[in-house]
Amino acid sequence: MRKSEVLAAESVACLNKALCHLKDIWEEIGIPEDQRLQRTNVVKNHIKGLLDMMITEEESLRTRLLSSIEACRKQLDTLCLELQLPPFEEERGVTMLQQEKEIRTQVEMLVKERTQRMQQLKALTERDQGLSDTLCSDPYALDPNAVPSLEQLDGFRQHIASQTTEKERRRAEFVGIKRQIILCMDDLDQLPETSFEKDIICEDQEAFCLSKDNIASLKLLLGQLEERKAENQAVCEAHREKIQELWDRLQVPQEERELFSEHMVVSKKKNLDALEAEGRRLMELKQLNMQNVTEAIRSEIAVLWEKCFFSSDQQQAFVPYYSNDFTEQLLGLHEAEILRLKQHYEEHKELFEGVQRWEESWRLFLELEKKATDPSRFTNRGGNLLKEEKQKAELHKSLPKLEKKLKAQIDVWEQEQAREFLVNGQKFLQFVEEQWELHRIEKENEKLERQLKKSKQIEVDMLYGTAVRTPTKRRFLGTTTPSKARKVPSVRTPGRSKPPLAGLQERNKENMGQVTGLGVPLQSGGFKTLASPQRNFSINSVASTYSEFARDLSKATNTKSKPDILNSTIAHL
């Protein structure tokens, strides 16, 4: 049994007890029956009125609860719809009070959520409006009066972040362009003229509208200023080149040039005016120094002829170069020619530099080849011999590669220009082939010359007994081993007071038994006495070794000379 039912039973018992107590009092007093009935009816009506009042109040409470539940349900449905949430599912099997409390709590929570979302939307809308004003863009498409969803708020935040980044980028771009515009205007000595230019230079950069059109206009203005600045620089550079040429041709002192050095670097408006004035002054001086200027230009033309590998015919084709009638017309022809030569050199600079590299490499290669035939190079003690050999080998490899590269460049150039690429009036590749052929012929001639010289020397050796020793390795002092020391022979020849060279007897011991004096053994086994005692041959004239002499003799036998008198070391050959 519930406690409330127990309390109700106690209330009934209390009421019965109270009525019994009233009854006893009434009997003791002696209240008649009709009055008792009247008094009991009053008690009943009082109790009944009290209970009815209580019932009415409780029924009113029930009605209010039902009304609250219904109102909360409607509000809850509206909030779920506004917040784009799924419908609220009520818990089943709960009392009316629990149901009302649960629904009311959910409504309060959703109202708070809606309030927060609207506050966030308001803050984001204000930021977006500021960014839109700065970037001159359309506001974010979101109804400020409707409750946004969480996804919409996230998208709005991302849009704000993107706009903020774009604003910073455009701001940095604007600041950079503005700085460049100010520098260009300063270089051009120009003040802001249009309202847009004044807004850029004078207005607070935070107030400047960073729209795409304004940024594009900024870039356009900067481009125009840079173009004008580049034109000024080009004009100034042309004036500087002309002034430098005139300085060189007129031989202007260095002190005078240094006074003008500021204008030779900076290209502002005042510098341009100064350059123009200096150019006019130098042109007047040029008119007064026509011959000197013409001769100075001729020196420059000669240098360009050499750089462009002009042949003598090509050089002589410019007839004014050889004229001595120094007039303004002659000077004009020279100036036109040097401009043409400079343009010609710049157009073909890569080819000319390649040819120059080839010539320098070829010249170095020939020098190393010449050094290779120099006997004095063997006295080297600094390692230069090995370096030269290595350098020559590298040049021998690199020259064909460079020639191949130049050939490809020349082929392309000739196809584009529809004419031959000439160096000194001759096709370069033909010139290269001729150089290699001349080098080969020269090497063959040197080889033949050495062979002829050697053959003649052998003839002289066979006729007069004077042998040229082959260079041998030097011995270091104090390193001779006693066991390997050559014995000096005791044979003495007539007419000589000195003994023959040490070791000769050992080298020619197979022939020493046949030496009887100043005779020469013949192939028949006999000896032929020298015709005259004045011919004094000694063993010192014999070749350093038998094998070396035999090799030389085998080469000498191919010549037309047939000596009658031979040294004793060839008696058995």
User: What does the main sheet amount to?
Assistant: 2 strands, antiparallel
Helix amount:
55-70%
Task: Please mark out the parts with pLDDT under 50 across 5 or more consecutive residues, or reply none.
Answer: 471-573
Give the number of DSSP strands.
4
Structural class: mainly alpha
N-to-C SSE string, H for helix and E for strand: HHHHHHHHHHHHHEEHHHEEH
Computed CA radius of gyration, to the nearest angstrom: 62 Å
**Overall average residue pLDDT:** 76
Q: How do the strands line up in the largest sheet?
A: 1-2
Backbone shape: elongated
Portion in beta strands? under 5%
Structure description:
This is Protein regulator of cytokinesis 1b. Residues 480-508 are annotated as: Disordered. InterPro entries: MAP65_Ase1_PRC1. This protein is mainly α and 573 residues long. 67% of the residues lie in helices and 2% in strands. It has a two-stranded antiparallel ribbon. Strands 3-4 form a two-stranded antiparallel ribbon. Helix 6 crosses helix 9 and helix 9 (290-307) packs parallel to helix 11. The chain is elongated.
In short:
Keywords: Coiled coil. With 573 residues, this protein is mostly helical. The chain contains 17 helices and four strands.
What are the salient characteristics of this protein?
573 residues, mainly alpha, two-stranded antiparallel ribbon, two-stranded antiparallel sheet, 17 helices, 67% helix, 2% strand, elongated, disordered C terminus
